Amino acid sequence: MAQRQMHLVAYLKTGPTALHVGGWRHPESTLDDILHPSRYQHIARVLEAGCFDGCFFADLFGL
To answer: Strand, coil or helix: what is 60?
Structure first.
């Protein structure tokens, strides 16, 4: 019998307030980098460090 393996995939929504309606009010929230590739590069690096196998972005803004 083949050994089964779990895969981790992140499900993310684009935008600064996709997780909480008041998220934009947090002092450390970033609001001006939604269209910058560096935002998504950072997310990819964090997920890679966490050994995620993939990431799915629910594209709410039509990026």
So the answer is: coil
- Tell me how far apart the terminal alpha carbons of the chain are, to the nearest angstrom: 43
- Looking at this protein, which amino acid is placed at residue 42? H
For residue 47, which amino acid is it? L
What is the rounded distance in angstroms from the CA atom of residue 7 to the CA atom of residue 23? 29
* CA 4 – CA 25 distance, rounded (Å): 43
pLDDT interval class at 29 (50, 70, 90)? confident
pTM of the model as a whole: 0.66
Q: What is the DSSP string of 3-58?
A: PP----EEEEESSTTSS-TTGGGSTT---S-TT-HHHHHHHHHHHHHTT--EEEEE
* Contact present, 7 and 54 (Cβ < 8 Å): yes
